[in-house]
Amino acid sequence: MILKHNLRGNSQPHLHHWFAHYQAHVNPDLTTRLLRKSVPVLEFIDWKVTEVREGFAASLLPLNRESTNQHGTHQAALMALAADYTGGIALASCLTGVPMAGVHPCHDDVSASLWLADMSVRFRTPSTGHLTVECQIPLEVSQKLSRRYFAGKKVFASLNVNFHSNGESVAEATMRYFAQPSIQLRPASGLEHESPIFQAKLKASARMIAGVRAQQPKHRIIRVDCPHTAAAASEHGRLLAQRLSEELPQLADLVHARTQHGDEALLGMPALKQVVMVGAGLDMRPFRLNARLPNVTWFELDLPSMLKERERVVAGFPETSSAKRQPIPIDLINESLEQKLLTRSDFDRRAPTLVLYEGCSMYFDESLNRRILTDSQPLLEHPESRLWCDFVDQSVVDGRTQIDAVTRFLRGMDELGEQFIFGCQQPGEFLKSCGYRQISVRTAGEYLQASDSVYDLYRFCLAR
Ligand SMILES: C[S@@+](CC[C@H](N)C(=O)[O-])C[C@H]1O[C@@H](n2cnc3c(N)ncnc32)[C@H](O)[C@@H]1O
User: Fold this and answer.
1) How far is the CA of 434 from the centre of ligand 1 (A)?
2) CA distances from 345 to 245, 275, 425 (A)
3) What is the pTM of this model?
4) In the chain, at which end, N or C, are there fewer CB atoms within 10 A of the end residue's CB?
5) How many CA atoms lie within 13 A of 419 on its CB side?
């Protein structure tokens, strides 16, 4: 049973029952399985959740080779890890009906985001037996936490976690958590409200795509070399790309194919003067293609925190580039793309322009996609100007593909907090309804000349 938050994150707890919450979100088998999947070190040390009640969680940190040091006692950091997740589950048990972002497969508008703000552990005696880790939240505290959360307020919870082995108290921890409806992490209005967690999510997804671009594609006809991309991805992007490629082995081919298809659109416009990168992320095209497109100005549109990350990455490149780049902060949810560009003196709507809307449509709802695509039209006055965009098939978002790898990949994206929410069965029709006329659509399968049902679920479009 899932609660849907309203815009402020409010919902109605009384409609939902503890038992349904237990079954759907916090029972020991489920939480053990989900947390071990998200945090593989928990599996390595054989940590498990043993009991969950409303406002209570217990877990077991076994005494084994993996979890102990040279003295055969538990490593302090692993005890802290066990405390973190035990306290987190106890807190989650109080938020009846609410799934946790990053743990349960769920969307922002229904989930809570929970993270540890700080902790302190007092170690009393070396832990030389299986450790029981317990967090009991007093009733009046759990009621207060739940009331605050369901009133749409931020929750700060200071929880005690106790460790016992061989019948004696081994350590005590105080864990301070922060919890909030995930939907509130999105920028409310304007650009200055991006929370650190929201920023971290954005960076993770842009780094992940850069990480996939830094992987070798399996398909022979694609080859996009870009040392800048590997630098942009960093270890974080490489790790996320590896995780998601394990779920969907076709991922590298799909992302490389879309990138190469977009490159061909750019290079196929000999008079090209401007590229508008909508949701630029860590796309390093301006560097990779500068030598071949020296007369192009790249307008890099993204949220301010992402542009900051872009500049941080670029500042680390060994050589400077002569690429003409114009970073433009924008919140596409609250601001108009058309207005942003047409009010700039350095943008010329009459110059040959390509609007590149790559790897973004799946994260925005239909009306926002429609607005972005419609708003792009007035930027494309020159007869050679074009829009490039990509869409996943509607069945991907509806969970109807019946392809396990796709389901696992989407779950991975959910866990990353970057849900796919929009897909399109007929991109040609959709683009027509946004005012475009000359439209070409190719599936990744057609482009790669390969038959794989996964490739057919991704489409690249060029329109004017
Ligand atoms: C998956 S990344 C794709 C990046 C890039 N186009 C690529 O293919 O590498 C999606 C991008 O959309 C940006 N984005 C998300 N929400 C946005 C918003 N409200 N306004 C502007 N950009 C946004 C993110 O910051 C991120 O850079």
Assistant:
1) 21
2) 43, 15, 38
3) 0.79
4) N
5) 19
Domain 13-185 belongs to what architecture? Roll (3.10)
CATH homologous superfamily of 196-463: Vaccinia Virus protein VP39 (3.40.50.150)
| Residue 62: predicted pLDDT | 96
Closest ligand 1 atom number to CA of residue 332: 20
Residue with tokens 């750019």: 266
Give yes or no for residue 283 CB within 6 A of ligand 1.
Answer: yes
Would you say the CB of residue 137 lies under 6 angstroms from ligand 1? no
Cα 422 to averaged position of ligand 1 atoms, centre (Å): 14
Q: Looking at the CA of residue 277, tell me the nearest atom of ligand 1.
A: 6
Chain segment 72-92, per-residue pLDDT in tens: 999 999 999 999 999 999 999
pLDDT in tens, 20-31: 999 999 999 999
